[in-house]
Hints:
Chain A: InterPro entries: MetI-like, MetI-like_sf, Phosphate_PstC, PstC_N. Chain A: It is found in: Cell inner membrane; Cell membrane. Chain A: Part of the binding-protein-dependent transport system for phosphate; probably responsible for the translocation of the substrate across the membrane. The complex is a heterodimer of chains A (about 475) and B (about 450). With about 475 residues, chain A is mainly α. Chain A has helices at about 5-30, 40-80, 85-105, 110-115, 120-125, 140-175, 185-225, 225-230, 250-280, 280-295, 300-320, 335-360, 365-370, 375-405, 410-415, 430-440, 450-484; strands at about 235, 245. Chain B has 2 domains: about 70-220, no CATH class; about 225-450, Orthogonal Bundle (MetI-like fold). Chain B has helices spanning about 25-65, 80-85, 90-95, 100-120, 125-130, 135-145, 165-170, 175-180, 185-200, 210, 225-260, 265-275, 280-295, 300-325, 330-340, 345-370, 375-380, 395-400, 405-415, 420-450, and strands at about 70-80, 155-160, 200-205. The radius of gyration of chain B is 33 Å and the shape is extended. The chains are: A mainly alpha (about 475), B mainly alpha (about 450). At the A-B interface, helix 7, helix 9, helix 10, helix 11 and helix 12 of A face helix 1, helix 11, helix 12, helix 13 and helix 14 of B.
Amino acid sequence: MSTFWIVLVVLAVAALCFVLARRRALSAVDGDQRHLHSRPNYYGFSAALWAAGPALIVLALWLALQPLVVDRSVRPLVLEEDRNAALVMSDVTRLAGGIDRAIAMGGLTAQEARGLTADGLRDRLSDFGTALASEVSPGVLEAAQRYRTIEGRGALLRSILTIGLAVGLGAFALWRVAPGFRARTSVERAILGALIAAACVAIGTTIGIVLSLIFNTIKFFGLYPAADFLFGTTWAPSFGGGSSLGILPLLWGTLYISLIALLVAVPIGLLAAIYLSEYAHRTVRAWAKPMLEVLAGIPTIVYGLFALLTVGPLLMDVFGPGGALGVRWMGGGTSVMTAGLVMGIMLIPFVSSLSDDIINAVPQSMRDGSLGLGATQSETVKQVILPAALPGIVGAVLLAASRAIGETMIVVLGAGAAARLDLNPFEAMTTVTAKIVSQLTGDADFSSPEALVAFALGMTLFVITLILNVFALWIVRRYREQYE
Amino acid sequence: MTDIPEGGAHPQQDGPRRGSLFAENPRIKARNRAEKRFRAYGIAAISIAMAFLCVLLFSIVKNGLPAFTQTYIQVDVTLDQEVLDPDATGDPAVIAQKTTFSYAPLIQAALVDRLAQSGIETEVTPDRLARILSSGAAAQLRNHVLANPEVVGETVEFDLLASSRVDGYMKGRVTREALARDPNLDAAHLEIIDALKAEGSVERRFNLDFITGTDASDSRPEEAGLGASVLGSFYMMLVVLLLALPIGVAASIYLEEFAPENRFTDLIEVNISNLAAVPSIVFGILGLAAFIQFAHLPASAPLVGGLVLTLMTLPTIIISTRASLRAVPPSIRDAALGVGASKMQATMHHVLPLAMPGILTGTILGLAQALGETAPLLLIGMVGFIASEYPDSFTSGFTDPNSAMPAQIYEWAKRADPAYYERAWGGIIVLLAFLLLMNIVAVLLRRRFERRW
């Protein structure tokens, strides 16, 4: 029985339990609801939850675990084959699927399928629409037969267990229905459990991120010395082997681009926020703020294309050979400056909206005090508001820096691909994020150090941004408490 | 105030102040100038930001609009029976055996005829002449014949797609000088185009295929469309909506209404606020390692993309949902509890419905953010292949390899061909149109249902 039908049957059982439990509760008090502990529907829901909940959870667990069990018992059979075990396993599953399909289409009886021999099997199966890459070897056939047996037995057991569980627990729940049974409490407890489970998804995600980074990073350091990775000054991956994978040029590119981005975003964003919150007329504010937010809502791929196709050529016209300045600083459209400038534009609304919140959090009494002493508005801003808001603004800048370091699309398209340790901002450089993309998007073999290095880079990125974020949030929170 | 010396002396170095307070002395002037300067800095900052926005939007519109039109060349093609159906069977199966190679000579002959008819003299050989048309033109012809087998032997007027260079020439992107180094097309071709254009048989018109069509190979930018990737994005958004909304709302309800103040709750809170700031590429790594390597879900599938984007948008949705739950005044809860509702009933029957408009607004904005996200999709394999087919059915829409709008735009940008750059800009216009639509819906929803307590 396929999973879909199992789920359908379980849901049908649950629906039946709902109706029966509700009716039983009502008939137990002769239709007078006042004598029930809970409203009649709660009795129904309680029974339905008992029927469907555990059954579906067991089904999900089974579906997740069965492939592992099957793999473990079939894999030893194919280990003698002198090929990549993963490839053989995929042959095995495809062969088993082909035999099943042949049976389903009536080309084989179940009896015949059990006595199949390896010769000519490929041609026979191709008649039923299963194309096998190579001739079937006896070992693979045996493994496929074992695979089919276990799968078949698993499917049968699964159906029996799940539906049995639904019926059994549903009956138990029905039996429990009585006027004094606290149906609402039990339903609410189940709902609360579901709510808690949903809240734990966040923890699960973090754990998932950390695990997937750590395991692959450890695997990488098993193949490539950690010291060379952390302190190496050349980045030259070659999938043929003998690559040097030093992170320093990538970190330098990342920090350089982020620095330029912050040099663009922080002054503009901060001054814009100050103007909007201290000077601007209400109508100006009503127009300018949403406009700035438009900049924040534009996807980064758009900024990436803007960097590659508009800003890059524009900078080339100024700083490139034959450009307006007559200098030859720039060799190509992609450069640290291109990416940094565009990233700065992207960060302007981020900085300005964070600073706006922080400036508005400075108590009005401080402004009034300063203005009352005769300070001009700009003096108030510079000598009272900014010092008071400074910790918060530092936090905002750190958050912006963490954004800049983690930004991917702009640097992938705008910064170039060459890893360099250079001071010229018009030179193409590359970043940690851009290299994660380039190392993982080919048809790379995931067990080579050249692909695994991406996980180590991801780990570095995760740690750096995490530290920046935690630090920034800590500053912002401390500062906020000061005035509350 | 009697101890202030006569004349209202200032305690500062510039000596006692004389005359009216309203008369500006040099120091006041300097201070006022500083004030004006500072104000000007603010205005300048805002103007710069606005200017950036304008330049960005302008370059999107200017570069992207041409993608919505395409050049077609009108040609009368004689569908020669000798070539297509030599035995005059009229049987569609026989005609279907002829590949596009059989149609190419027909097109060449038709072009030569067309030029002779208009009296255009040219040195271009017939097989090079056909390069003014897309290499997909033969397939276009064949599909038409297969759909209407009865036209074999007749002369039919076709609007055939021009090649991307000709299209670029019509749009002003390709110049004669640029063609000097082009192996496919030279200036003589352009003369022909000019002559045909004067007669009105070369026409640039709106190209619906750009929005509804599927991606094409590297060499045929004129045929590439966004349709399959729009569908891919749609399936991803469906997954995000179906998972992120219930999970996000449930988590928010727990944290806002039920959670006791303890370490466990703190842990969840810290996790959520940190996840909101984790770079999106890290979610891509998670998707690759957890969903594709560990769980063996199909790579490039919208299902996996949707799962990754769900995890990424969850913090956003949780944060906005909690804000709207918090905005429901406690008196509502108290009233419900007061008439005997349980805490769960008060939350589910009263607080949640009242917070729903805010929750939906936040969810739509979260979806908009997810729709434009590209980096994680790169890692789970949604670029690098050509999304040239629509999924067969609803379920295969989730599991078959597909692209997504931003991934398709990236793919086009990577192909380093001006014709594809134009498509990429055009794709951005479509993407931004969807984002605008979602934002407008969110704003309207907020306007319509927002309650002030």
